[in-house]
Amino acid sequence: MRIKRSVARFFTLMILPAVTIAVVGYFGAYAIWGERGVLALEETKARLGVARDQLAQLGETRTRLEHRIALMDQGDPDLVEELARTRLMDGAPNQVAVPRDAH
What we know:
Largest sheet: none
Order of helices and strands: HHH
Number of domains: 1
Number of strands: 0
Mean pLDDT: 85
Radius of gyration: 36 Å
Low-confidence stretches: none
Number of helices: 3
Strand content: under 5%
């Protein structure tokens, strides 16, 4: 009877630490491997770096286009000629375009 009580008391005292270890283990594993854990953070940082690179490229493209639009608004004859040549020189395959000199 005395051994039975000591075994029962031992298991009763060990319930709280066992539950605590289980809860800490569960949340610890989620903190590492969960959808918002440490490993997901690294993947998110990598995607953020790629997105920042794309944003920088788009910013450069936008700046270049804004400059060209400003030149068009000013009526820059060189830009107009450049645009006309690129549009008119595009032809069908096996078609040759020969530019003529102005008279």
